[in-house]
Structure formats: structure tokens, C-alpha cells
């Protein structure tokens, strides 16, 4: 899976540049066996099936979700309303769709509809309890942070080739 890290970074940079009009900077990626979400208020989740299975998750604080939604809709929001949920769902959907295109050179993949989880201290159930999760932190708008977490395994094992 390590060889795909740059693809994850490049796709996120392109999506935020084109959709939001913002430049983002990736921090140092790291592996985790599981992730707790006590510092994040909202996560968008896309499941992956086909020749590989797993999930792609974007997690962020409420203030950043509100700011991104305002950019996308042109309206200010003060809570995680339907438009905020839809905006975060659309962001992870576009990221996942672009990643799917990168992976389709080697794997036939199907992505699910996005699911958005709101609330401090929420949890994400990964497809496999022993999944290796790549976490990539990103900086946006000078002092805001979000992260992309990805766990994908091929039918023959972890995508490491």
C-alpha cells in the first residue's frame, strides 16, 4: 500500500484545489492499527469493494466543515446541518472517485455512497479489525487540519505490491 501514498496525497491536493480553491499541504503519513476520533467532529466515509475492499475516511473539526460548506454553497452555517453533511459527503465522494480511477489500472473497484458521521468522540468501524490504516494529515487555510485515513486490502492480501 505504501506505493499508493503519493496518489492519495495528489488526489486530495487536486480535489481541494479544484473544488474548494484552496491549497493544502500534506504532513507525514503514518500507519495505525485503529484510529480513535476524539479530536474530530465530522467524518465522511466511503466503503470500497471489488478486487480490493476497505474504506476511505476524511475527518475534520466542525469549524473547518462549516468553512468548507460555506465555500461550496455560498452560505454561512453554524451547525452540522444537512448542507454541511452533504458537503463533507461530496468531498469524500470526489476524493474516492478519483482514487478509484488511479486504482482501476490494477483493481476493479466499486465505491459505496458516502456516509457522514457527526459528533465528538465518534468511531469508525473498519472492514477488518487488523486493517493497516494509512493516516495522512493535511493543513489548509494556515491553521486548520484534517486527515485522510485509508485502509484497502486486495483479495490476495494487503496492497503492497
List the helices and strands and how they pair.
Blueprint: H1 5-20, E1 24-26, E2 30-32, E3 42-50, E4 52-60, H2 62-73, H3 82-103, E5 109-111, E6 115-118, E7 133-140, E8 144-154, E9 157-158
Antiparallel strand pairs: 1-7, 2-7, 3-4, 3-5, 3-6, 4-8, 7-8, 8-9
Helix pairs in contact: 1-3, 2-3
Kindly describe this structure:
This protein has 161 residues and is an alpha+beta fold. It has a single domain, classed as CheC-like (Chemotaxis protein chec), CATH 3.40.1550.10. The chain is 31% helix and 32% strand. The chain has helices spanning 5-20, 62-73, 82-103, and strands spanning 24-26, 30-32, 42-50, 52-60, 109-111, 115-118, 133-140, 144-154, 157-158. Strands 1, 2, 3, 4, 5, 6, 7, 8 and 9 form a nine-stranded antiparallel sheet that branches. The N and C termini lie close together (7 Å). The model has no long low-confidence stretch (mean pLDDT 86).
Shape: globular
CATH-defined architecture: 3-Layer(aba) Sandwich
**What is the makeup of the main sheet?**
9 strands, antiparallel
Instruction: State the helical fraction.
Output: 25-40%
Find the count of extended strands (DSSP E, 2+ residues): 9
Question: Which structural class should the secondary elements be placed in?
Answer: alpha+beta
Short overview:
Helices cover 31% and strands 32% of the residues. It is of the alpha+beta class. It has a single domain (2-30, 37-128, 135-156), classed as Chemotaxis protein chec (3-Layer(aba) Sandwich), CATH 3.40.1550.
Amino acid at each position: 500500500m505504501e506505493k499508493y501514498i503519493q496518489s492519495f496525497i495528489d488526489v486530495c491536493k487536486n480535489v481541494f484545489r479544484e473544488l474548494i480553491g484552496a491549497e493544502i499541504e500534506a504532513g507525514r503519513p503514518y500507519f495505525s492499527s485503529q484510529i480513535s476520533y476524539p479530536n474530530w467532529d465530522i467524518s465522511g466515509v466511503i466503503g470500497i469493494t471489488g478486487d480490493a475492499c476497505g474504506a476511505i475516511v476524511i475527518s475534520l473539526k466542525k469549524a473547518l466543515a462549516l468553512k468548507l460548506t460555506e465555500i461550496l454553497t455560498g452560505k454561512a452555517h453554524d451547525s452540522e446541518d444537512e448542507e454541511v453533511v452533504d458537503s463533507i459527503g461530496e468531498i469524500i465522494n470526489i476524493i474516492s472517485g478519483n482514487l478509484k480511477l488511479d486504482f482501476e489500472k490494477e483493481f476493479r473497484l466499486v465505491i459505496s455512497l458516502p456516509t457522514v458521521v457527526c459528533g465528538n468522540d465518534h468511531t469508525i468501524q473498519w472492514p477488518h479489525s487488523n486493517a493497516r490504516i494509512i493516516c495522512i494529515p493535511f493543513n489548509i487555510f494556515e491553521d486548520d487540519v484534517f486527515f485522510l485515513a485509508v485502509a484497502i486490502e486486495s483479495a490476495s492480501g494487503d496492497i503492497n505490491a
